[in-house]
Amino acid sequence: HPIIHLSAIQKSYYMGKQAIPVLKGITLDIHKNEYVALMGPSGSGKSTLMNILGCLDSPTAGKYVLNGQDVSKMDDDSLADVRNKEIGFVFQQFNLLPRLTAAENVALPLVYAGLAKKTRHEMALAVLEKVGLAERSHHKPNELSGGQCQRVAIARALVNNPSLILADEPTGNLDTKTSIEIMDIFGKIQSAGNTVVLVTHEEDIANHAHRIVRLRDGLIETDRRNEHPAKSA
Ligand code: ADP
Ligand code: ADP
Q: Where is the ABC transporter domain (predicted)?
């Protein structure tokens, strides 16, 4: 089964009694080990769709099956559970805790999983190694570059071994060269068997992904396989 199965997803916001449709019928399957870029003009519904994919919000209509579980009609508590187990989030602003070291930031999701401190630290170091940042494990965010901070955030998203990595404009605060490094890291993560869905405004960045889905006005405009993803040197 696909990791993500969306069928006729609709989402409306309400201004008083008036429904404002934002997603107007999104049908989409994403399989394990795909690397997908979600594009589209501002206001086309990308953030709304990512919120639904991330179980942060529920659709108004339609069906969402995540890794075999129908999440479209779950209550908030069950959604929070699914979110913690199945999804790793990466944000534009990194969202790292400034007083914690890289390793402590990465280990944070494991605190909620109830693992012992030593185990948490070892697991954090292992994922920091995967994103090429092992030697920075004891540094705090203000001692790291933007690209390094984002790698810490990616490591934190991975540490729970989720079935899906969701990233909303993960390169939005980074220069081009660093953005490409980050896209390569997502590529490595994908090669290792993970599934990555990210939002970007930039064609050159999206071109590193293996599939490009474009939204327009709440609908999928195009969905194409990228046969020759860009690679850095
Ligand atoms: P983007 O996803 O393009 O970076 P945002 O998600 O921040 O941008 O906002 C996209 C649009 O959605 C903006 O026009 C913003 O005004 C609107 N928007 C976001 N949240 C709300 C809200 N709670 N109520 C009304 N409009 C909102
Ligand atoms: P994108 O991420 O592609 O910029 P969004 O999903 O943020 O698009 O927004 C799509 C539309 O939904 C926009 O017209 C925006 O104003 C509206 N919107 C987003 N969030 C809210 C909200 N919480 N309340 C009302 N309108 C919203």
A: 4-233
